[in-house]
Amino acid sequence: MINNIIVISDIHCGCGFGLCPPRTTLDNGNTVIYSPLQKKMWQWWKEFWGKWVPMVTKGEPYIVVFNGDAIDGVHHNAKTQITQNFADQIQIAYEVLAPVRDKATQYYHLRGTESHVGQSGEFEEELARRLNSIPDDVGNYARWEMWMTIKKSLIHFTHHIGGTGSSSYESTAVYKEMVEAFVEAGRWNEKPPDIVVRSHRHRQFETRIATKNGYGISLVTPAWQLKTPLVHRLPQGRASTPQMGGYLIRSGDEDSVYTRFKVWKIERSKEVII
Fold first, then answer.
1. I want to staple 9 with a disulfide (CB 3.0 to 4.6 A). Which of 61, 199, 235, 244 is the partner?
2. Nearest-CA neighbor of 10 among 244, 266, 267, 247?
3. Left if phi > 0, otherwise alpha if psi is -120 to 50, otherwise beta: which for 89?
4. Pairing, β 214-220 against β 153-158
5. Euclidean distance between the first and the last CA atom of the chain, given in angstroms as a whole number
6. What pLDDT, on the 0 to 100 scale, is given for residue 239?
7. pTM to 2 decimals?
8. Residue 142 in contact with residue 124, Cβ under 8 Å?
9. For residues 110 and 68, is the Cβ–Cβ distance under 8 A?
10. What pLDDT was estimated at residue 130?
């Protein structure tokens, strides 16, 4: 029995602010070398898989769930991509995720935002096929949502969740995701999820409430992307710094399931002294 699930998301490969290996060769033969901040992010990525994951899983086997937005795509008239060739972006994401897939006992891939990963998630589907992700019931390698049971706990995964421009209301949509799931399950007399997993926001957040089974958890995963021009337009984003990291969902004693997360953040830029 596997007791550990590692959840990551939002690596946005192909973006000059996204996760990138030290060197990658594009379709036109040009070689791209990561920036100083991408280098720092890459070091954290290696530490996450090389140190943190073995520590929190206690060296046991684990499942990996990638929860959407593996590539950056061509979106919102952005000029930040290192390449707008989707084949290049998919190849970069493959180079990043293939070693992760190889270490996992099972690998599952969720589709992210269409503006990044193509209409109907077509490019994420291609990437997930290359990664040999476990397909769903109709044979798709990348899914829009997934239900998973670990011991007696039911987990629901999907990429999207509502955002906010204010830190004061950061918990609102996260809590509502759990409430909506409980209401929908009660309406149809189905088992409600014990854990709700979302991404998309690029900021870690978690809330939990008491339930008959112990507690219900609703969480949002951090990302692996630096601050883009779009973020500077957002009230919450203007003063914040990017978060990188991921989640562990682990089955513990007495059939309980708990979570742990690891988050790094980029330091603020140096102040101008006059």
1. 199
2. 244
3. alpha
4. unpaired
5. 61
6. 77
7. 0.96
8. yes
9. yes
10. 98
